Amino acid sequence: MQRSTGSPSLGSQQQQHDVERIASSPVGESPVRCLICLDDLQDECEARPCGHDLFHFICLVTWLEHRAACPLCNGDINEVRYEVSGNDKQGKIYKVPESNKGSDASSRLPLRYEDNAVQKRRRIYRDNLYSLHIGSNEQQLAESAYKELSPQLLATDARLISRARAWLRRELRVFQFLNTARDFSQDRRPSNMEFLADLIIAMLKTVDFQDSSGHAEGIIQEYLGRRNTQLFLHELKAWLRSPYESLSAWDLNVQYREANTLPRASNEPNPEAMQCPTVILKYSEPAGARKPCSTQAWRLYVFKDSEIVDTINLSERSVWLFGRDERVVDVVTGHPSCSGQHAVLQFLYLPAKICRKQGGEKREWDRKEDGHGGSVGLYLIDQDSTHGTRLNGEAVESGRYVEIKDKDLIQFGGSRREYVVILPPA
């Protein structure tokens, strides 16, 4: 991967300024560190039966995929206890799959797997492939449900931050211009990748990566380039939203539009692969996906026989997938004429020059300028549904982004339900 020529030098004063500006680190005694990744210990767990507990949960689970033995004492591990809180002394239990036990103890195996995984991830960036969207709704099973993210959640959930660090440690290896002679585990002096990982973790806790301003994208693209950054943030969101406990399980299940990058079944049973049903997904958010600004409180009112049966705060997410398949959609449309993945409502950022030309006029009344020369609009996309999607009574062309305005009425298939979009005055 090649870096943009205008990138600032890593390790510069600008980097230090970015870190200090986004988050401050407490000064005190040396923190306890995870014995696998050597980062500060936050999302700790306990290996059983030996009882050693100086590991992040995600680090230990990843280790156990290659060798079902304690990294500290080399004793066999049958299960891992995690998420132990003051009110819940028992916590949760992760059972080590039988297929992991008795595996080759070669210390090179995890590295060999990770090297192969990094090569595959490098191809994702080379071909600019965006992982396909899986929605979240209240009807999904808790163990397989995807979750929505916010800085508030990430600031208080140590396990999410641990998962983010595990992903960043591997993903940043994709960008060869960040690599140095030493590896993460070989030297505790800050490396280029470590610095950028710390910067991103600090931002995760304070900044919504999809807010209308594009603030996070603007900072990170100085180091990775704009094209890489847009895909990088999309994939980070996809991983953190997913229910998978290890990167290998996510690798097995994540889907991309090209057939040769769709997940393939493993030769060995993988319990985590069963967490999400095998559904061929249809939609991926585009590079310009963002949430609307805070003054735009987009609402969707669902009517049936002139009565409001549901209200959806559209501004909470950048994308909403509608359809009958409750396993993968954000909004379940139960009518039998609706397709499994029927249509999408997508918030999308457009540069100002496109906004001015669209429709031959500049329509500022239905878009809110974000202060960076562009605006975020709402768009409807039919996903090649069997019985179509209608906007204000007219059929919508499949696969085409159609702009949605205040008081527009949407209908899916033959359903009598009417979905009315409302944008209250700021």
UniProtKB/TrEMBL annotation:
Region annotation (Disordered) ranges: 1-23
SMART domains in the cross-refs: FHA, RING
Keyword Metal-binding: yes
GO function terms (MF aspect): zinc ion binding
SUPFAM superfamilies tied to this protein: RING/U-box (SSF57850), SMAD/FHA domain (SSF49879)
InterPro entries linked: Cell_Proc_Reg/RNA_Proc (IPR050923), FHA_dom (IPR000253), SMAD_FHA_dom_sf (IPR008984), Znf_RING (IPR001841), Znf_RING/FYVE/PHD (IPR013083)
Keyword annotations: Metal-binding, Zinc, Zinc-finger
Annotated ranges, domain FHA: 320-396
Polar residues bias: start-end ranges: 1-16
RING-type domain: residues covered: 34-74
Record keyword Hydrolase present: no
One Pfam family hit: FHA
The protein's name in its UniProt record: SMAD/FHA domain-containing protein
